[in-house]
Here is the input.
Amino acid sequence: MLLRLLSLPLFFVSALAFAQNPTPRPSPIPGGMMMGVVGSLMGGIPPETRCSPESIRTRAQTIIHNIEYGDVETSVNGLQTYMENCNLRPEKFGWGRGTFDYWKQQGYKVKLATVEDRIKRQSLVGKVSTKDLEDYKNFAALSGQSDMTISGFLKEQGDIAAKNQTPCEPKDMRKKFGEVRNQDGIGWCYAFAGADLLSYKVGERVSAADIALTYNDGLIKDLGMTFGNNEVQYDGSKDLHTPLIKMKDKGYCLEENLPSEDSGVSNLKLTLESVSKTKKDFSSDKKVCGEEFNSAQRLFPNLNPADYYNILEKSSRADFSKELQSLTCKNRKPFPKVEVVVGEGSDPKVHVDTIDQQLNQDVPVEIWYNADVALDPHFDIKLQPAGHASIVVGRRFNPETKSCEFLIRNSWGRSCGSYRPGITCEEGNYWIPKEDLMKGLYGTTYLK
Amino acid sequence: MVQLILSSLLFALNVHAAEPLTCVDGQARVLEFGKTREFALSYCYDSTRTVLTSKECAQGDGNRKCTPFVHHAPIAFNELNGQYGSPTFTLCRKLGGSAHVIEFKADKTWYKLDRCVFPNESFVDSGTLFKFHMYK
Here is the structure.
């Protein structure tokens, strides 16, 4: 711990010295990031269009588009070389002598702003990555900032980082949750995270599918019609407040009564669609056979044929799934006497502090975040706006990286193959440095 | 259940980073209709039981019959993001496979994982599939 407390201010001292003599900048934006945005535009140019003015304009458009995302130096240099090889002069395209440098400068400034923002966020948790500091110095110099400005920024952030170094007391609650769940291919991560929070509180495995069906109450009348036929169109929730508040009145259902991880040749989405289709077909021709009952029983295992056909006869299409859910979960248990607390604001630092405070009291916290922080080695939130829910169940200090890390219980099963290098995964739970999580953290929910 | 160990130390290449896989004619099970269905299946697994492949995929991309490890054009991370379910399942479908949760038996113990099955029946767990295609 002492080493860590000393290391950051010392690093900033060395960084300040380094800032006086910036070295040439290393390679710019990683290729994968560029490909993600404009992969199709940057693709190979067919031979017949080589050296055509159109191909030059296309590459220039791509560069101008990419300025918004940062450094374009490599692309600009590539275009210049390409034009020289084609014996084409910039004037032919209406570009002045300084156009290429102007594009590069604009890209440096965007990149600098991005890196500055990242350093500020990291300083708030007391740890700034070496690469970001080096990037800052290089891009600040390339953008024409004075040595004094560069030194001043680094000192300011160094002071903030030193002030924000907080204890990182170890905590590990994962064993209290049992095996990591697998949400399959359906976008109900919030329900799986909510089920985990509730399960922790009540000591029983709560059904995630029940939380999702309750949250979507009234919407699941015709899945194909309401959500479209694509799995990605299934509804998800941003935070846990609304889904859990809906559960408060109703009580919870156990996983054994309404399974969320049905497997075999089907999956949850296909099963829901099949159940929905049965009612739709029945409404039109009044015919039904054993297969439909089997399909419904896949999701609602406590059904017996008599009850099923009774609901099929008497329910409306809007209420069909809801009534099947009520029947299979007829032995609901009362929601625990807790308050559902949603973290306020959008400041990741506030959310991280909330997580720390709750972990200190052995309270797991649901996080709403961009899971690509744990997947993509070149993560950039501007390029990858997306949401996912998991819960934080632990914390540790990693002596190798000198980072305080959170333990995230995910809902993608036991497998660890999906996490990027630098993330330690154990049976579907993964460790991520606080400062990395902050890059994509939107909000928190916990039970008090 | 009688397990026939075909090859206890197949050294897998590339994706398994020389991790030895154990291949067996074993037992698998899935949850259907709230009940468990057990069936015979040939598969290979690693020491942590978090890698599961069909036999033809036990050596990474060295076997042409192993469809999961056929190389594809790069896929961006933002095409697989988490709001829409597990990105590993999304990738599986994108590559033409079908993913589902499965349990397999290893040394008399059941382990829950998932697998991405391709039309020719070759399969691999979705995490290993993701690692192969996204971090190569």
The first helix of chain B runs from residue 87 to 94. Chain B has two helices and seven strands. Chain B touches chain A through 42 residues (CB under 8 Å). The CA atoms of residues 80 and 134 of chain B lie 10 Å apart.
